[in-house]
DNA sequence: CCTTGAACCTACAGCTACTGTAGGTGTTAG
DNA sequence: CTAACACCTACAGTAGCTGTAGGTTCAAGG
């Protein structure tokens, strides 16, 4: 028993890169696993589950800080799950805000593109709009910070 | 004539931070403006227009490389605006992809949150879903790279 | 003329969440 | 035994800025 995986296997199991695991360890999101005699990390099943949790949460767009909070809440199974819900709702709110922001961008971009009927750059509406059109308040906010994904 | 603005005024006029202007200069997006005797940058109206162009394009989510391309295209007013259009359409495509991705996230998050009916963390669906649910292929792609906005 | 405070200067560190590289060591199959 | 591959550390780089430290310059008031 007590099958332990090297970092490559763990990465495969959790669907992430080897370096990502080392990174999570470095920032304290994963514990430092025991090492083999030759100094190689050996991950227990529990570590891999934690890693998978992190990856799933990341895939849903949760920032690492939120995941940190979720993980520590997960360690207190008898507490109310109110705080967990709050984090998830915050994430949902964030996603919805980004969607609205991007939809506004899409409208603007479409309008701009549709107005361009080809021809010379001097007459191009795209360039013109970018040169002259003051973007509305809408675009001044920092709604869309960053995304998610594993390149 | 030839009113020239200090960096603070230019930033105000273009709606960005002073450091942002210096950054754009550093990466070669803005020319290095002439300096006063006391070594302070003096921006011409033309520089401010270029800066505003950049800010508008950023507000629409164009990455700096695309803006670089747009700017150099803008310097050739007799060329066809096909390339300009292509950049704008690429940006639109990118925005649309992000929207779809975020809408998928939203569905997942909503589902997860709705299933949670309060109670103890041990029974929390949110934690459970994150622990056990393997995210579909959909979330493995790098669709949403980064956003836009001026914090 | 002198001072004060704001605005400017350079250079560099920091943010998110990784990813990639260099240069070296461990492990395993043939 | 050796080749190939996985692993190790440490650090640099990505995008697009933002913030800080430590020092000048400038304009206005006394």
Structure description:
The structure is a homodimer of 151-residue chains. Chain A is 56% helix and 0% strand. The two termini of chain A are 35 Å apart. In chain A, helix 1 (7-14) packs across helix 3. The first copy, chain A, has 6 helices and no strands. Chain A has 2 domains: 7-61, Multidrug-efflux Transporter Regulator, Chain: A, Domain 2 (Orthogonal Bundle), CATH 1.10.1660; 82-140. Chain A is mostly helical. The first copy, chain A, has helices at 7-14, 18-26, 45-59, 64-74, 82-115, 125-132. At the A-B interface, helix 3, helix 4, helix 5 and helix 6 of A face helix 3, helix 4, helix 5 and helix 6 of B. Chain A binds a DNA duplex (30 and 30 nucleotides) through helix 2.
What class do helices, strands and sheet pairing of chain A give?
mainly alpha
The major β-sheet of chain A equals: none
Protein chains sharing the most extensive interface: A-B, 68 and 69 residues
The counted number of beta strands of chain A is: 0
Percentage of residues in DSSP E strands of chain A: under 5%
What is the CA-based Rg of chain A, rounded? 23 Å
Ranges of chain A where pLDDT stays below 50 over 5 or more residues in a row are 135-151
Instruction: Report the average pLDDT across residues of chain A.
Output: 86
Tell me the number of helical segments of chain A per DSSP (H or I, 4 or more residues long). 6
Give the overall form of chain A. Answer: elongated
Q: What is the element string of chain A, with H for helices and E for strands?
A: HHHHHH
Kindly report the oligomeric state of this protein.
homodimer
What is the percent of helical residues of chain A? 55-70%
């Amino acid at each position: 028993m007590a099958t332990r995986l090297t970092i490559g296997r763990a990465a495969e199991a959790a669907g992430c890169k080897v370096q990502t695991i080392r990174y999570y360890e470095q920032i304290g999101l994963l514990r430092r696993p025991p090492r083999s005699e030759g100094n190689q990390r050996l991950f227990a099943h529990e570590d891999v589950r934690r890693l998978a949790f992190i990856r799933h949460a990341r895939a849903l767009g949760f920032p690492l800080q939120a995941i940190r909070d979720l993980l520590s809440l997960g360690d207190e199974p008898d507490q109310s799950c109110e705080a967990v819900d709050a984090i998830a709702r915050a994430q949902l709110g964030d996603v919805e805000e980004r969607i609205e922001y991007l939809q506004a961008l899409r409208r603007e971009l479409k309008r701009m593109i549709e107005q361009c009927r080809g021809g010379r750059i001097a007459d191009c509406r795209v360039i013109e709009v970018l040169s002259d059109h003051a973007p509305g308040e809408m675009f001044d906010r920092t709604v869309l910070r960053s995304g998610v994904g594993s390149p």
